[in-house]
Amino acid sequence: MKTWYVLAIVALVLFGVERFLYKVSAARRCNTAWTTLSFMSTVALISTSLFFLTDQHIPDLRYLFVVALINSGSFFLGTISQIEALKYVPTNIAYPIIRLNTVLVVISSVLYFKDQLSPMQIIGIILGLGVISWMTSQSYGGQSSRRQVTKGLTFVGVALITGAVAAISSKFAAVNTNTLGFIALSYIMGAGFSLMARKGLSTETVNPNQRDAVIIGVCMGLVNIAGFYTFLKALSLGPLSIIISIVGMHFIVAIALTALVYKEKITARRFVGIVLTIVSIILMRS
């Protein structure tokens, strides 16, 4: 079994656990900025310490700064969008749609890297777009409920786009610069973004106990640094389109844990959407 494939599977599980913690933060109504700040600060502290302890070398500091800025900005927006989305729509609707950022990654690979799409990838893209329509067309009772869902799906859309940008920038970093340096700088920047946004994301409905947000954020950070490092190592050894398709399956872990812990019901319609998402992602790695 290829090393990059094993690393991709490990990253899948770790990212799935991390995304479940997003749901925990949303369920507890934690201040998203404080959760994200403690999350990114944890990763920044650990990765920076490892970078200096292992005496790493950075080949091009300017390149590292640019790719880290793009990655941190997109990942920060994606993180807060996912957590906020989970406050309004179920996990088994939000995550399958967000994971279809694989469509954008594959299309970007074609436009930038001049990759040729196989017939199966084309079918996967068409199916993926169909799944988005399928999952967002569900009916909800009441005008107020529909407004809440619309708000949640707006966050889902932002998370979808920013997730694709983060994945593509990670590929550039994995093959062209120092891995630990990239993780450290990306999360230092991300922590800075979180610090600036902490008041803007505070509302009257937010849990006033910041301790919950900090604890959940630290747990996210510990899981994420292991998952992100493993993901980047996989990208440095294997193809972006296949690895992102495998790792993109992590939403299944998050949905399963949410259903187990929070008893979130998976209707037949949503189950079909999840299955079609899996099929779409598998087709796009062909």
Explained architecture:
With 286 residues, the chain is mainly alpha-helical. It has one domain (3-284). Helices cover 80% and strands 0% of the residues. It is built from twelve helices and no strands. It has helices at residues 3-27, 32-53, 61-85, 91-98, 101-113, 119-136, 143-176, 179-197, 210-237, 240-247, 251-262, 268-284. Helix 1 crosses helix 10, helix 3 (61-85) runs antiparallel to helix 7 (143-176) and helix 3 (61-85) crosses helix 8. The longest helix is centred in the middle third of the chain and has 34 residues, at 143-176. It is globular. The model has no long low-confidence stretch (mean pLDDT 85).
What's this model, at a glance?
This protein is mainly α and 286 residues long.
Shape: globular
* Strand count: 0
Radius of gyration: 18 Å
What is the distance, rounded to the nearest whole angstrom, between the alpha carbons of the first and last residues?
18 Å
Classify the beta-strand content into a percent band: under 5%
Assembly category: single chain
Mean pLDDT rating: 85
Helix content range:
over 70%
Low-confidence stretches: none
Question: Total number of helical segments?
Answer: 12
Fill in the keyword field for this structure.
286 residues; mainly alpha; 12 helices
Show the helix and strand layout:
Elements (H helix, E strand, L loop, with lengths): L2 H25 L4 H22 L7 H25 L5 H8 L2 H13 L5 H18 L6 H34 L2 H19 L12 H28 L2 H8 L3 H12 L5 H17 L2
